[in-house]
Each structure stands twice: as structure tokens, then as C-alpha cells.
Amino acid sequence: MSELILTENRDGVFLLTLNRPQSMNSLNRELLAALAEEVKAIAFDPAVRVVVITGAGEKAFCSGADLRERATMTPVEVKQYIFTIRNTFTMVENLPKPVIAAVNGFAFGGGTELAMASDIRIAAPTAIMGLTETSLGIIPGAGGTQRLARLVGKGKAKELVFLAQRLKAAEALEIGLVNRVAAEGKLLDEALEMAAKIKQNAPVALEMAKYAINYGSEIDLGSGLALESNCYAVTIPTKDRQEGLLAFREKRKPVYTGE
Question: pTM, whole model, 2 decimals?
């Protein structure tokens, strides 16, 4: 694997670190390709229960596209890049396991888009986020216009994008862009602690819950309820469901295997 991505499996919690700190973890084509390969590799790896994504160093989670590289691209190459980054972030969003973004610094453009493609966002107190593309003559192209509106509402999303506004962590929390702000110096600890708690729950149940929420929120309530019912049905024949009932009866913690 590329040295641009650092990985560590901490007993089922998979820590994935973007590793270009000298460039504020900006997404050049090589880093983006490495990220896509990692996401594909862990998608159905039973040894991975929860994923935590963060950036190397203290300055940046991910500052978005590498604009120095972008300046050398032809219009066709830019289209190819946007296609790749959009599809990669959609793969992150569709991972069949929970994903936590530990936003440890600047997260502009693609950095905020990567965080929004994750299921849960925890920010360091010093984090600054924003979709700043309109100040560069472009628009968010990796899902930002769509995911931001779904997270904070259409009106607020338009305000933030039109102004190319940068939000401090507390402001991001206030509008619901992030789930919580970690204590000073405790970002990764808090993200890993949450991941460890999530990991205790049944993998198939987590996958189905994520699927139901992601897809159910995009359809009418009746169809969403039918989708939820179908996702519930997937969990009924699993060994984990039986283990959950048995552990409850025996007053112990369940041991889930993902079967």
C-alpha cells in the first residue's frame, strides 16, 4: 500500500490516516487513488468493524484538492479527477460499517466533503471546516452541494457555499455539521473510544441500520418503513441475534461474530 495512507487495525477499529502533512493532507491523484484502494480493501473485511479517518499532523484533516497539481491539469483531467473523488467519497459513505471522521484541523473543500461522507464527525476544538470552492471559481464537486444540504438544510447550505464560509468547530457543531467537539488534545482518543463502543454491537445489525438510515432518509415515509422492515429481516436468521438474546438472559456482554 502507498505511504500516503497510514493504516492500523486496533482490534477491529481500523484507523486510516491521510499522510501528506507537508501539503495539509491535500488530495493529489496519488493519495486519492490510495484512499480508494484502501476503502475497497476494507469494505468486506470481517476483521474491520469500525473505521476512523483522520489526517496526519496537527494542522489539517484534509485541505481538499491539491491546487498546485490541479493547475497542471487539462480540462479533461479535471473531469476525471472530479469523477474519481466523487466516486471515492461515495464508496466511503456506502461502506457496510460505521465510519467516524476525526477532523483534526483544516478541512476545506474535499476535506469537508470527506467528513460529510462519513457517518459521524468529531472535530478538534481548533478544526475549521468549509466548502470554499466558489471563491476559486468552481463549486463543490465531491458531493458537497448534496450532503451539506441534507445535513444542515437547504437555506444554510446555500449561505455557506455562496459565501465560501469557513466555520470554527463550535459553529460547525451549532448547525449540525459535526456531531461533537472533542476536548483539547483528546480528538483521536474520543473518536477511538466511540468506535470501540460501536464495535461492541452486532456487525450485521450495524450494517443494516446504516443502510436503512442512509437510503430511508431519501424516500417517502411509507417506503422507508418498508425498507426498514426488510433490513430488520436480514438480522433475524443471524447467529448474532441469537447471541444477543442469550447474553441478555445470562446477564453478560454479547460476543458478536458478524454471522
Answer: 0.93
